[in-house]
């Protein structure tokens, strides 16, 4: 029951982040002493997506600033850390190299142990950091690069129950925003637009919902959106209301796909874990910031006797507090990495699960 204080570093996509977290791995929740996030939206928005080379250079410029700021805000120095945790994958290789090199330098300079963290594990264990959720729990990881249902039994102990067979929902949100010129990142823009729309006006497909199994598919939805938009454009100018109705219909279809499959996964989890008296559905990743997604999941969880644990919005999207916490749990379990730690662009949580044919456009990322 030892309390540890861990510095976390995250640079796998387009956020440069550092954080200090303190806690006892076996007695969560943890305490976030600082969480600094520099997002790179301004650098990438002109391109409508993350440009890997620009991201890597920006990380290299900003990492030391983020680390200094995280330590200063926490009122601590490197000497007070028990370990230095860094995202070692999955993600964009340039950003990962920047972060891992920075962490290695700090580890050499301070003599502190280095812990390489899987970015997806950071998202996965956020519900423990924030709410002290006990193992095992059911997790829906839903982001710009992933859509997975996992049974989580401990750090490194994941069983994938289902996954997307094509696109990730965040990718579909981003694409929708791009097609309509709503800006980048797309998720929040589409959510804002959908608020004034009529979800029933357009009929969007609900792929795979009726099928057996716990897999998802979002590419049909993305195509349907494009076809409907093209149809409207061919008939005349597309109004603000048209856009709002399209966004609302698209978002409702996404929510329905997520909630229906997650509902089925709850039954599977219950059967596998009859000993769990108060089961939890945790949701993580950028798309978990969407209020309709949260409300839909809350309803389906409540109906099946699960408690929904959804992190605060700032901990849904990429941050370093989740990396520090996952590193803390790993370190408490006796895991450290040597200075030969290598970044891994691809790194699934459930290594025994069959890889799917296609990863999201943004890579095997969450
Ligand atoms: O986990 P995350 O920060 O990083 C990666 O996937 O790399 O997730 C980012 C994704 C983006 O696709 C973004 O559009 C989506 O999460 N997202 C949202 C919302 N906020 C972020 N999607 C829907 N509604 C939102 N409010
Ligand atoms: Zn992420």
Portion in strands: 15-25%
Mean pLDDT: 93
CATH class of the largest domain: Alpha Beta
Number of separate strands: 10
Describe the 3D structure.
It is a single chain. The longest helix is centred in the C-terminal third of the chain and has 33 residues, at 240-272. Residues 359-366 have low confidence and may be disordered. The strands form 2 sheets. Strands 3-2-1-4-5 form a 5-stranded mixed sheet, sandwiched between helices. The chain has a 5-stranded mixed sheet with strand order 8-7-6-9-10. It has 2 domains: 4-131 and 318-362, ATPase, nucleotide binding domain (Nucleotidyltransferase, domain 5, 2-Layer Sandwich); 137-313, ATPase, nucleotide binding domain (Nucleotidyltransferase, domain 5, 2-Layer Sandwich). The chain is globular, with a radius of gyration of 20 Å. The two termini are 31 Å apart. The chain is of the alpha/beta class. Helix 8 packs antiparallel against helix 9 and helix 9 runs parallel beside helix 10 (291-303). The protein has 12 helices and 10 strands. It binds 5'-O-[(R)-(carboxyoxy)(hydroxy)phosphoryl]adenosine (KG4) and zinc ion (ZN). The site of 5'-O-[(R)-(carboxyoxy)(hydroxy)phosphoryl]adenosine has 22 residues, from helix 6 and helix 7. 5'-O-[(R)-(carboxyoxy)(hydroxy)phosphoryl]adenosine (KG4) binds next to helix 6 and helix 7.
